[in-house]
Amino acid sequence: MSFDPELQTADVEMSRRSLLKVLGGGILVLASVPDAFAWAMSQRGQTLPQKIGAWVHIGPDNKITVLTGKVEVGQNARTSVTQAVVEELRAPLGSVEVVMGDTDLVPYDMGTFGSRTTPTMIPQIRRAAAAAREKLTDLAAKKWGVDRTKIHLSAGKITSGIHSASYGEIAKGQPFDEPISEHVPLTPNKDWTALGHPTQKVGIRDFVTGKHEYTSDLKRPGMLYAKVLRAPSFGATLKSLDTSQAETLAGVRVVHDGDFVAVAAPTRRLAEKALAAIKSQWNEKPGPSSKEIFKLLRGDDKIASSKTPDGAKALTATYTAPYIAHVPLEPRAALAEWDGVKMTVYTGTQRPFGVRPEVATALGIPEKQVRVLVPDTGSGYGGKHSGDAAVEAAKIAKALGKPIKLVWTRVEEFTWAYFRPAGVDEIASAVNPDGKVVVWEFDNYNSGSPGIETPYAVPSPRTDAHRTESPLRQGSYRCLGATFNNFARESHMDELAHEVGMDPLDFRMKNLPADSHLRTVLQAAADRFGWGKEKPAAGHGFGIACGQEKGGSIATVVELSIDSQTKEIQLLRIVNAFECGKILNPDLLKNQVEGAVIMGIGGALFEAIEFANGQILNPHLGRYRVPRYSDIPKIETILLDRPDLGSAGAGESPILAIAPAIGNAIFSATGTRLRALPMGF
Length: 681
Hints:
The chain is of the alpha+beta class.
C-alpha cells in the first residue's frame, strides 16, 4: 500500500491500533526518546508518547514510511532523514516516504529550529530503522529456520542461502510495536553507503518543474479566497466600519469579530475588490521611528566598567543593528477547512505543534479538534514560528463554514510578520602590549543573549543581555541574536588587533584556547585564501572573522574593493571553512553554508526596516534591498569532516562570520571602522 497523508485519526496521540489502521499491516517500530530530548520537551508542558521518538513502518508493498514532526523548509531535512533510513535498513532510496509535520500522524515535536534536526531527529530515525532491521532479521531467521547471522539485508531484500524475500513479505501479517534502546547496533561511520555521501534532494524534480504544491497552490471543493482588513498602523483599534459596498458584490461574504475584519469570495480578484470597498476608521497612536530606535533601546542606564590593568590599552565601542525582515521565498499562507467538528489547516510553519494550540485558542475549541499539516515550505529562516495566517484562515473558515485560502501579499509579510530584533552592543575591553585580551565586558540591548559569550580565553569576562521594550514585533531569526553579537565581537577583536599592531589572524590565534575548534577553521580558511602572503591592492581590503554556535564552527575570509569616487563596496572573493562534526551529506551541507553566507551579505550591506509612527516605510522589495546575483562573488567552501564527533546542524551557524569579515575588510581598505549594520558610506 502507499501511505495516504489525507487519512485522519480521531486520537491526536495515536494509539498503536489506530496508526496501524492508517498504515496497514506490517512492522511498526517505536523509538525511545533520548532522556535529554524528552526532558526538554516535558519542560514545555507536553506529554510525549510514552516510548515514541520516531515512527518507521514497513508495508506489505515494501514501502517504508517514516513519520517525523520536523518539517521541510528548504534545509533538505527530508533528504537527510531518508538517507538515515536507507543507511540502517539497507533499503533503496526510492522505497522510503517521509511524512513530516502532520499533527494527527506524527509524534509531537517542538519544532524545526535551532539546527536540531540533525543532532536529535537523525539519531532517533537511525535507531528506529536499525531496530526494524534487527526485527526483520529475527523474523526471517525464524521463518526459514536459519541462524540470524546468516541473514543478509540489502536493497530491500532479505536473503539467506536459497531463501529470499522482500521486506514487505517478511513483515506482512506481523504487526507489532516495541520500544528500542539507544544501544541498538548502528552502522559504523566507516561502513556508510548512504550517509556521508552526496545524495540528490528528495523530490527535486517536482520542485524544479513546478509540480510541487506549496500551501498557496492547494485547492479544496467550494473553497473561497480571503483577504484581511489591516490596520493603518501597529496598535490601532477599529473606530468605525462600513462593509455595505463590499456585501453588494455577488459571492462576497464578510467576517467581523472585534478588530478582525475579513472578506471571502470565489476568486482572489473579487476578494481584493471587496476589501478595497470597505470603509473604516481607526484610532491610532504615535510611535518611535527607526532613526531613534537605538537611543530608545539603550536607555540612560550607566554601566560601570572594570579598571584597566596597568600597561594595557583600553577600548570601548558601540555597535548597532536595525530590525530586518526574513524575506522568505513563500509569504505566509494557509488553507483552512472546518467540517463542523474538526479544523484542518495546511500552512507553512516551523512549528506545527505550536500552531495547533494557537488555532484552538482562537476558535475556542480543544486542541484535539485541530489538525495542522505542513507542505514542504518555501523557507522560514526562523520567521515562521507562529501561525498568523493559519489562525486568520481558521477563524474565517469556521465563521463561514467554507474552506478558506488566505495568502499574504509581500507587503503584508513585510509589515505584519515579526522581525529580527534591532540591537545595541557595547563592549569595553583592554589588551596587553603582547596581544592578550585582559578585560572583556559585553552588554547587549534587546537583540538577545545567543552568541554573547566570548570563545576567547579572557580572564573573568562579563556579559549581560538587557531586556528592553521593542516598538516592533520581533522574534527568531537565523542563528538568533548570535548573528549581531558575533558581528560586534569579531569587529572589536579586529580593533584590538589594530591597537597592538598585530595581524588579525595571529591575534585571534593568540587569544583562542588551544583546543578551540575555531583555530582549525580559521587556519583552513586562511590557508585557502592565502592570508598573509600578500597585501591587498590599493582600494582593496582583506577581512577575517570566525564564530561558533549550535555545534558549528565557521571562519570566513573576504576580499573586497571600494570605489574611490562612489564608495560602492564590491565583494570579490569569499572563503569559508566550516566544521559541524561528521558530515551526513556534503553537497547539502555546502548548500547550507553558502546559502547562509549569501543571506548574511544582505544583513551586512543592505537590509534595514524603516519605520515611523507604527508604519513600515519600506514594505516591499522595491525599497527593501536584498542580495542580488551581481552582489555575489566567487565563494569557496571548505568542509571539515570530523568522524569522531556527532553531527551538528548547519542551517544557522554559517551566517555568523560574513558580516564582521566584510566590516574588517572595509577597515583594511579604508582605515574606517564601520560599527553600524548595514555597513556603507
